[in-house]
């Protein structure tokens, strides 16, 4: 049983769980129930290609309520609501189409016309988006003035609601869930050889009855890929006060190792509507650790332009992998790029590097993840570093598989200890490219995202306890065990030790990187990364460089272990350097 997860479970889940479902939302535990004039009913939620939860800059849904549901129209008879509103929407929930103007502007027009809630549905204009695409809504210049709840729906939602609204007398209700945020596994996919007792079986329960409840029994029933029940866990709450949101942690459970998608059904003995049964999912695979749900979505995910530039044009994600009772060997890292034409720079190899690092997540063995500044030194846990060099010929979102190499021995593959934790991490530094464009990594669609704890997990900036990630999606960054046979692979290009010298080491005031390259390189880039993999100062880029010395001032850096990340046209490398004052 994994000691790492047992020790961090309570602290980690309480900090991170509320963000795992959606980075945007502040109150996502609702169903949007629409009843048409003829009595037909549609129920919409965050699951199954439907909704993104309420915008965190808009009003909250802290009580159930119902209101007429109508399309919003401007004086120009369009439903974009980017101009003066044609009607009085007092006491109504208004549906608006995405497009032309900012989300905050649209919602404010509806609010000023009396609307008490807004649903914005996706348009059909973007080729990369399909009927299931949902977005996090940016506030824009006027979002701070919005006080009513506002949320986003896919095109599928629009298609379901149009005929209901057309009948007239449609009513929409916000129904607050009694159970929400179910989880079962610490990551979505686990290789069969690494299946272990799950310690992350949780659900949120809220007593919305209005009265004190006694003997509340909650169940978690497990089903294997064949649909056969493999066991049930029960949690009893003797007393539950009205309106109290309870975070329930079930005992551990070993789900038999069976390849395929497993399901966990959570129920309770107090509420019996269909919406009161919630599910969590996980998969057992032949060789793959994954925090994404093994489905790819076009378009990719990454920080905004402002986030990227404010971070020094440097990003690093990380996905947590927990091993089981049996030692294993990892041989490949898998990921994808969604915007190759935007980020590939011809004839400048150092600008086209994606770094892939594997860290031991618990360097000192105390059972706590060495991730944030308040934890231990993660740099000492770097066990593998390889690179992928973009060629410009990649197909967007086609997965690539990069062979892993042991950082210390140089051997193919890396040994993973039993009952341990590792991070697989993707690194991109846009300084050499100097375009402001950021790599967008292939992701799983959030509408198909099966919740799991994933603490701390993907996507994240290493060094921050944040699991919500970019646009609520999950980066594809998989760790493949021995036996995995990729369709195609890349060949890492390493910079020979004879071509780079780092001195002095340890360093006090300055570090020198001396390069002796075979020929003039169009660009050479060097970055200093701290113990969490974060960029500690601006990347230095030299153009038309072959032989010489690059000096780095480290006087202001705290004493500790750092890495010099060197990228050239003749290969790249990570070099450890200690700073001692």
Secondary structure elements and their pairing?
Blueprint: H1 3-20, E1 30-35, E2 41-44, E3 51-52, E4 65-71, E5 93-97, H2 103-112, E6 117-121, E7 150-153, H3 155-166, E8 171-176, E9 179-183, E10 189-191, E11 202-206, E12 213-223, E13 229-240, E14 245-249, E15 260-268, E16 278-285, E17 288-289, E18 297-301, H4 305-310, E19 314-322, E20 328-335, H5 340-343, E21 353-360, E22 382-389, E23 400-403, E24 414-416, E25 421-429, E26 441-444, E27 474-475, E28 478-481, E29 500-503, E30 510-529, E31 540-553, E32 560-568, E33 571-579
What does this structure look like?
It is a single chain. 49% of the residues are buried. A hairpin with a 5-residue loop joins β1 and β2. About 8% of the residues have low confidence. The longest helix has 18 residues. This protein has four domains: 117 residues, Immunoglobulins (Immunoglobulin-like, Sandwich); 147 residues, Glucose Oxidase, domain 1 (3-Layer(bba) Sandwich); 186 residues, Sandwich (Jelly Rolls), CATH 2.60.120; 83 residues, Immunoglobulin-like (Sandwich), CATH 2.60.40.3080. The protein has 581 residues and is mainly beta. The protein contains five helices and 33 strands. The strands form seven sheets. It has an eight-stranded mixed beta sheet with strand order 2-1-8-4-5-6-7-3, with helices on both faces. The protein starts with a helix and ends with a strand.
């Amino acid at each position: 049983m994994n000691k790492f997860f047992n020790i961090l479970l309570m602290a980690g889940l309480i900090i991170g769980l509320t963000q795992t479902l959606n980075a945007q939302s502040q109150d996502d535990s609702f169903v949007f129930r629409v009843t048409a004039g003829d009595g037909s009913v549609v129920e919409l939620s965050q699951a199954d290609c439907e909704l993104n939860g309420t915008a965190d800059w808009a009003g909250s849904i802290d009580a159930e309520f119902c209101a007429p549901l109508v399309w919003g129209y401007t004086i120009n008879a369009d439903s974009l609501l980017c101009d003066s509103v044609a009607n009085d929407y007092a006491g109504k929930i208004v549906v608006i189409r995405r497009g032309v103007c900012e989300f905050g502007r649209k919602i404010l027009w509806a609010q000023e016309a009396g609307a008490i809630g807004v649903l914005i549905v996706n348009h059909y204009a973007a080729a990369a988006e399909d009927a299931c695409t949902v977005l996090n809504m940016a506030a824009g210049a006027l979002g701070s003035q919005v006080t009513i709840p506002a949320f986003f729906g896919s095109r599928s939602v629009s298609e379901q609601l149009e005929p209901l609204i057309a009948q007239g007398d449609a009513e929409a209700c916000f129904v607050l869930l009694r159970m929400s945020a179910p989880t079962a596994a610490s990551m979505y996919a686990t290789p069969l050889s690494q299946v272990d007792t799950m310690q992350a079986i949780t659900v949120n329960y809220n007593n919305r009855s209005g009265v004190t409840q006694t003997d509340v029994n909650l169940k978690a029933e497990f089903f294997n890929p064949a649909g056969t029940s493999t066991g049930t866990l029960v949690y009893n709450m003797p007393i539950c006060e009205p309106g109290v949101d309870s975070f329930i942690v079930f005992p551990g459970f070993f789900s038999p190792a069976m390849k395929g998608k497993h399901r966990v059904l959570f129920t309770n003995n107090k509420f019996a509507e269909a919406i009161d049964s919630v599910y969590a999912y996980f998969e057992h695979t032949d060789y793959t650790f994954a925090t994404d749900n093994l489905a790819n979505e076009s378009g990719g995910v990454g920080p905004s332009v402002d986030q990227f530039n404010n971070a020094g044009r440097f990003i690093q994600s990380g996905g947590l992998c927990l091993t089981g009772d049996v030692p294993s060997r990892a041989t490949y890292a898998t990921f994808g790029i969604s915007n190759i034409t935007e980020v590939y720079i011809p004839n400048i190899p150092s600008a086209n590097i994606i770094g892939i690092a594997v860290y031991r997540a618990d360097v000192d063995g105390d059972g706590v993840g060495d991730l944030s500044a308040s934890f231990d030194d993660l740099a000492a846990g770097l066990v593998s570093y390889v690179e992928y060099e973009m060629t410009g010929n990649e197909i967007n979102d086609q997965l690539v598989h990069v062979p892993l190499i042991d950082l210390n021995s140089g051997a193919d593959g890396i040994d993973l200890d039993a009952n341990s934790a590792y991070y697989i991490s993707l690194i991109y530094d846009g300084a050499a490219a100097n375009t402001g464009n950021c790599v967008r990594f292939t992701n799983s669609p959030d509408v198909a995202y099966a919740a799991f704890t994933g603490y701390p997990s993907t996507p994240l900036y290493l060094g921050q306890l944040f699991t919500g990630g970019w646009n609520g999606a999950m980066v594809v960054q998989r760790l493949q065990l021995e036996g995995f046979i990729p369709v195609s692979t890349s060949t890492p290009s390493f910079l020979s030790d004879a071509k780079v010298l780092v001195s002095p080491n340890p360093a006090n005031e300055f570090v020198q990187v001396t390069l002796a390259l075979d020929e003039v390189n169009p660009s050479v880039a060097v970055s200093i990364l701290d113990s969490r993999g974060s960029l500690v100062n601006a990347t230095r880029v030299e153009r038309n460089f072959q032989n010489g010395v690059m000096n780095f001032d480290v006087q202001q850096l705290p004493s500790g272990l750092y890495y010099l990340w060197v990228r050239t046209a003749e290969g790249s490398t990570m070099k450890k350097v200690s700073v001692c004052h």
